[in-house]
């Protein structure tokens, strides 16, 4: 392993002004490689309705988002259009966060073998500045901030929907408390759409507010891998439950869906970000990072809300499930909204059988869902899991092949009650509580008009509240959560 490794692949990555034609938006990405070669890719988003000219500023931001996964590997991002001050500030912040998270979680702490051996880093030689983005963001000009839309309706909610338990539960709770809810789907052109298809078809049938956009962004990510000099040429053949290089994918979905929010004056954007047990700000080799889940972190919502305040006033981004573990998300969904739960698919390899979409029952995602369902005494067959996969679960499952927080795994196995197979599991009580941590899961970031009703629903499936004190989750009274005042941002 070399003392220093040069990962620079491009002298610049250029992005053209988006073209808007009917229902389709396009922007050309041009890679200027260090060896002089130039390769091109056209990013596309297709909508159900015609795109308006006032969407252009939003779509500029949308098409930039995938590029930020490559700030470590290019000298410049050249943008062939103007940006406002708020746009530039957000992009610079995301460029730093994306780069640091990719450096730590894809270059150093690798879970899959995508990198060529000669480019593997020796951690002893890593310096904090190595994780900083190399790419400078250059736009045609910078202008003063202006509003993209005239008004937003704070009673309307748009849910980024995927067919997963978090977005289904979010939709179910908002529907129950009387919100006007829009289930919004992104068909990303890859196999992932199969996981969303059952829920999308269900929503399309029962709810006329359901919308879907199509994008070829998955193909773009593979195009980029083909052009990164340190990635193996056979990367498409590697089977893994993680992506090479890219991490933060929600920001692209958010901006790609914003024209729908603008047209329908939807004032609330909800991402199904559940509780992640980040008890401190983690550092690796002296570099702060988010374990690769920044776009599910409260900090991402805060950054976006600053941008909305300048560009789409009256809009807010938040999560209705950030205070509860995946175990509780699954419990609430199957116990309260069975009509939605049957359409949940959380699998890396969904496939068709007799016109039905079936989960593979074997990947890490399926094993996590099976654990939650069995721990909650729910029948996995409601989600089309096969009988043989259910019956063999305890023999097949291993702690190491479950991508869950350790406490969440322990409590789930404890509830499973199989002392003959898991004899040394002790209960971890906080997993079944509503978590309060001002830095990562503060419920006061939920809009006041929804907060109490949503928490009242969740209280039925939890064992109380807990708060992070001195690095430990301690029980707290419900009323204590009201004493904290959020800082003005």
Key phrases:
489 residues, alpha/beta, eleven-stranded mixed β-sheet, three-stranded mixed β-sheet, 18 strands, globular
DSSP helical segment count: 14
Global mean pLDDT:
92
> What would you report as the Rg, rounded to the nearest angstrom?
22 Å
Morphology: globular
**End-to-end distance:** 45 Å
Sheet with the most strands? Answer: 11 strands, mixed
Strand content: 15-25%
Q: What structural class results from the helix and strand content?
A: alpha/beta
- Overall helicity: 25-40%
Low-confidence stretches: none
Number of DSSP-assigned strands: 18
Which helices and strands occur, and which strands form pairs?
Elements: E1 10-15, E2 19-21, E3 24-33, E4 38-46, H1 56-64, E5 76-84, H2 85-108, E6 136-143, E7 153-161, H3 165-176, E8 180-187, H4 193-206, E9 211-215, H5 217-226, H6 250-264, E10 266-270, E11 283-284, E12 287-288, H7 298-311, E13 316-318, H8 326-336, H9 338-341, E14 351-353, E15 356-358, H10 364-375, H11 387-391, H12 393-396, H13 406-416, E16 434-436, H14 448-459, E17 465-469, E18 472-476
Parallel strand pairs: 1-5, 5-6, 7-8, 7-10, 8-9, 10-13, 16-17
Antiparallel strand pairs: 1-3, 2-3, 3-4, 4-9, 11-12, 14-15, 17-18
């Amino acid at each position: 392993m070399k003392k220093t490794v040069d990962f620079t692949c491009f002298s610049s990555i250029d992005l053209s002004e988006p073209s808007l034609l009917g229902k389709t938006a396009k922007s050309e990405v041009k890679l200027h490689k260090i060896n002089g070669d130039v390769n091109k890719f056209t990013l596309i988003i297709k909508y159900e309705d015609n795109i308006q000219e006032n969407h252009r500023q939003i779509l500029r931001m949308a098409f930039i988002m995938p590029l930020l996964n490559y700030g470590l590997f290019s000298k410049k991002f050249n943008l062939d259009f103007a940006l406002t001050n708020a746009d530039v500030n957000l992009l610079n912040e995301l460029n730093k966060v994306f780069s640091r998270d990719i450096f730590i979680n894809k270059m150093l702490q690798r879970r899959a073998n995508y990198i060529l051996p000669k480019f593997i880093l020796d951690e002893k030689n890593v310096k904090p500045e190595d994780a900083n983005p190399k790419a400078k963001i250059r736009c045609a000009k910078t202008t003063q901030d202006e509003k993209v839309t005239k008004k937003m309706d704070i009673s309307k909610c748009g849910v980024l929907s995927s067919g997963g338990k978090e977005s289904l539960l979010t939709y179910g709770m908002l529907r129950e408390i009387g919100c006007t809810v829009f289930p919004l789907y992104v068909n990303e052109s890859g196999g992932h759409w199969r996981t969303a298809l059952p829920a999308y078809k269900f929503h399309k049938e029962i709810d006329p507010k359901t919308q879907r956009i199509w994008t070829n962004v998955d193909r773009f990510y593979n195009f980029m891998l083909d052009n990164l000099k340190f990635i193996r040429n056979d990367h498409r053949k590697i089977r893994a439950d993680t992506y090479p290089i890219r991490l933060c994918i929600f920001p692209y979905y958010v901006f790609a869906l914003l024209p729908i929010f603008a047209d329908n004056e939807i004032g609330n954007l909800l991402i199904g970000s559940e509780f992640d047990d980040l008890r401190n700000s983690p550092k690796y080799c002296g570099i702060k990072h988010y374990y690769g889940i920044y776009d599910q972190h409260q900090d991402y919502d805060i950054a976006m809300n600053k941008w909305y305040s300048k560009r789409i006033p009256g809009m807010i981004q938040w999560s209705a499930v950030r205070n509860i573990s995946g175990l509780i998300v699954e419990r609430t969904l199957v116990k309260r909204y069975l009509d939605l739960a049957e359409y949940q698919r959380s699998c890396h390899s969904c496939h068709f059988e007799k016109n039905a979409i079936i989960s593979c029952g074997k990947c890490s995602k399926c094993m996590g869902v099976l654990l939650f369902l069995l721990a909650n005494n729910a029948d996995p067959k409601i989600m089309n899991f096969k009988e043989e996969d259910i019956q063999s679960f305890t023999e097949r499952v291993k702690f190491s092949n479950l991508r869950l927080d350790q406490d969440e795994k322990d409590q789930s196995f404890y509830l499973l009650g199989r002392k003959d197979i898991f004899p040394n599991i002790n209960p971890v009580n906080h997993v079944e509580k509503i978590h309060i941590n001002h830095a990562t899961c503060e419920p006061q970031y939920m809009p006041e008009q929804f907060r109490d009703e949503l928490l009242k629903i969740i209280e039925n499936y939890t064992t109380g509240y807990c708060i992070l004190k001195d690095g430990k989750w301690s029980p707290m009274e419900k009323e204590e959560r009201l004493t904290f005042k959020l800082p003005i941002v």
